[in-house]
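User: If you would, consider this record:
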Amino acid sequence: MLDLIGAAAALYGNCSQEVGSEIIYINGVPASAEQMTLLEEKAVLLADEYTQKSVNKKALAYLASTDWMVLRQADSGEVIPNNIKDARATARLEIK
């Protein structure tokens, strides 16, 4: 479900929506069809941004949790297992 009120707030600032209503008010006036289209587009962008931030957070956490293996290899020469190398490469590719 798209967060239209969040998109409205991001675009216009002063927005509200009555509980159980689909009507969004911008500065106390119901949003026009054109404004609703813009809100839907903005809501999709915000959802995509949130999703990418979640992916980034997970990938960065994985990299941080396995950084010690990279240091161990540099320090002692002990090889990083291939599955860890592959997973780290995938995590780096996921980060945007």
Observations:
- The chain has three helices and three strands.
- The chain has one domain: 4-91.
- Residues 4-91 form one domain.
- The helical segments are 4-12, 33-76, 82-94.
